[in-house]
Amino acid sequence: MKNQILSFALYFLMGCPFVLGQVIDLDKEPEVLSSGTFSKSTMYYLTPFSSISYNIGYSNMHQKLNTELDLNQRKFGENISTGIGWRKKQMFYNFIIAVPPFSSIVGIQNGNARTIAETKDGYFDFTVGHAIVSNDRYFLILRAGAGIQARSIQLTQIYGGTFDLNDLSNPPGNAWPQLDHISGTWDVAVEILPRAFRTLSVLPSLQMGYKGGIGSPVWRSSDMNIENSLSDRVSILYLRFSVVISRER
Amino acid sequence: MMKLLHIKSLMVIYFLFLGNETVETKFLQEKEASLVIYRKSNLNFSTGFHLYLNDSVVIKEIEPNTYYIIKTRPGKVLLKTQGNALRNFTEKKEYSLTLMPGQTYYLEAIQEYQVLMTTMHLVRRQEDSFKHATKKMKSNFLSVKVSDSDKKDF
Fold first, then answer.
1. Which residue of A has its CA nearest to B81?
2. Interchain CB distance below 8 Å, B93 and A24
3. Can you give the pLDDT at residue A19?
4. Which of A218, A242, B81, B114 minimizes the number of CB atoms within 10 Å of its CB?
């Protein structure tokens, strides 16, 4: 048994460099371009890094928070997304869902009180893409689609000083009802995706796009009925780097 | 006897160094083989790739939208592509090719992008596909002569 393991280890160690350092004979190799042979792919999108988004929309709520509570909302946001996509020749179909890795928190100290706005963004969309440039090296894909964009803002105010943990029922601050804004969106994007040369490839993808709101819905809350609510339109520019695990057929 | 040895050793030195070189340069001028390497335009978000010919660097970076002409001694050559900077994220590829005197060989360099592993493949092509591919290419061509005694980097 020991000998078998030893011989296996020896074989493994000796075999590895040979396999890795295999010399391809160009005298014999026929002219084939492996990237052109695949016509279908199933793709799994993952984002190891956050994708960046720049918010131009939500201007009414931004203005209200700014003038009344002096809270300047951040324009840059980040998302991590995951999705699935299919390709048939030059057509691409994708579902993407994105959630925030962290909530964006802005706070302001006003005397003894500290006011905090905690914002969370998330979206879901379906896009259809067509490769406007498709060669043996890469795809340049023009995408259009529709989806849902959601944002929630939680406002809280907390007073400084001491707090007795035995006195949990007496909170030292105020909380407003959570404000939710859910809007339908349309989406246009450009994506660069290299061609796959193997049946299972891990490809980098870079996508740049714009999300515009369909209509301008009002801010609501699941906690309370909001009176004199504001309406806001979604308008977001985004840049997304994804790792695409692609199964080629 | 000693004199004879001296003459013999002088002759050996002459043939080894001087004689051999003149024969070699003459041979190179007459019957060298051409190796044409071209790369189509591509996305360029990766490290450059070296091209090694018989273990010495002949092209420091195989750039897109460029073709290179390498004139070298005929015979079996070993070609290798390897990442320039981030070596751990690139794959080393080795190829062998037999060059006949006076012949031209066309190779297309194709870069395969994968996350954490980029590869530069060399694929044998015919003259027609080279001419078709280089039609719109800028005339970024470089000519280099490689022999065993004189290995140039460029």
1. A23
2. yes
3. 46
4. A218
Q: CA B18 to CA A45: how far, in whole Å?
A: 64
Per-domain boundaries in chain B: 1-31, 32-146
Cα of A140 to nearest chain B Cα, Å: 10
Which of B97, B114, B125 minimises the CB distance to A31?
A: B125
Flag if A25 and B116 touch (Cβ within 8 Å): no
B32-146 classified as CATH 2.60.34: yes
User: Is position A10 within any domain?
Assistant: no
Could you read off the pLDDT tens digit of each residue along chain B, which spans 154 residues?
555 556 555 555 555 455 454 444 454 455 788 889 998 888 766 568 899 988 888 888 888 888 888 888 888 999 999 887 766 788 889 999 999 999 999 999 988 888 888 889 899 888 888 888 888 776 555 666 665 544 444 4
ipTM for the whole complex: 0.71
Give pTM, 2 decimals.
Answer: 0.77
Q: Are A31 and B43 an interchain contact pair (Cβ–Cβ within 8 Å)?
A: no
- What own/partner pairs with CB < 8 Å and gap ≥ 24 does B124-130 have? B124/A26, B124/A29, B124/A31, B124/B97, B125/A31, B126/A31, B129/A31, B130/B36, B130/B38, B130/B67, B130/B106
When CB atoms are compared, the residue of A22, A33, A192 closest to B123 is A33
Give residue A206's domain range.
Answer: 38-248
